[in-house]
Structure formats: C-alpha cells, structure tokens
Amino acid sequence: MTMYCDGPVHEPFGPEYVRPQNADCPDCECCTAALCAKGRANVTECAGNVDGEMKERVANCPCSAESTRGTLAWRAGMIRATTYATERPLREELEHLLRAIADGQVNGFTELLPKLVVRRYVSWTPGSTTQVALTDFGRAYLDGLDLPRTESLVSVQSVDEAARTVQALIPAFSAEQPVTVPMDILTTRRTELSPPELTEATLYAEVNPGARTADDVVLTKVRNPAVVADRPKSPDGAR
Ligand SMILES: [Zn+2]
User: pTM, whole model, 2 decimals?
Assistant: First the structure.
C-alpha cells in the first residue's frame, strides 16, 4: 500500500484500518452475536449463513441449533414432528419403542433405536448415564398422536421479519398470552399473504390447545379463508 506514503516522513503506524468487528456472542464460543441472531432466525442455523472454513467452525453452534428451544430450526422441528404424527405416523414397532423411551423403560441400544434417532425424536449418547432420552420433537410427536388438536383463529399481533417470527393470539390456547409462530408458515403460496399483510388477515390453523407453554403450541394446516381455492383436501391419502 503506497497511496498513503505521500509525505517525506514514512509513517509506519499510519492510518489504522480497524474493521468494525462484530461483538462476540456471549452464549457460544464460535460466533459473533450478529451471526447467532441470523442463525436463530434460519432453519439452516449459523452454519447456513457463512461460507467455507467458517462453516465448519460454527457447525453445531448451540445458539441456533435445532435442539435449542426457541430457535427457528427448533420450531420447524416441532411442526415437522407434529405433522408426521397427524399425517404420516410411524409404524407400530417404532411407536411402541418411542413410548417405552418416553416412559423411561429403555436406556440402551436396541435394534430400532437409530430409526428414532435419525428423526431426532430420541437422543442417544452412548456412555452417558441417560443414554437414551426423548427429545422435544419426540414429545411433540407423541402429543400429536395423543392430545386433542383443534382449529383456532390465529390473530397476528406483530411481525418480526428479521427473526422470521410473528406474535399471534391463538384463542384456543390463550386469550392473552401470545404465541411465537414462524412467519414463513403463514406467508405461503396457499395463504397468499406477505409479511406486512399478516396483522390484517384472518387466519386459521390446527393447534394443540392443551400445550404446556406458549412455545409448545404447534400450528399445522394454516388456512386463509379469504383464499377461495384453499379448500380442505379429501382424506384420500389417509391410512
Ligand atoms: Zn452461532
């Protein structure tokens, strides 16, 4: 760089080009706070928002991980598990194993265990005292089978496009306590809504009114009655 050596005196400590660094995330060892904020708001997590070498470094960042309650990846996992429970349930042997794990009756490797681990319904940590444990997704799956689901009004109060979530009142769950819902399940081709339109829209979805907490309220089958073509499908694919 010669363009700044314009005087007779060489200036070795000359202009300091300090790139504004992003502050480190206080909750992990791998990311900046800005990256974790992005990762939490993206189902591809922190690793999906960086390139090359950084990908490896931030892989498995706990701040954005699917296994961390409240991340967008976690919310997507809860919806996926519930959808599978209500629409494409596991075969019987797998359901029995999942229920046995939920009841604490299994704590070691069994032949079918990997099939539940790969769906992230169960965590399996060989060598630890609790080797086999039900995950939030395993619980959501069983709740999807066992607990009532009902259609409710979804009244969007506010939209956070950066976090890709909305706050919504879901009267079937609570008249006062808002529920955080992934924005993208409300702004689909089927609802024909854009984010700014959500607070004005009347939407319906199937929910679990008995959810333990607001975060455990899982919306499926989101429906915009203003879209005429959005009729309920006939249950021909049901088993
Ligand atoms: Zn991170």
Answer: 0.84
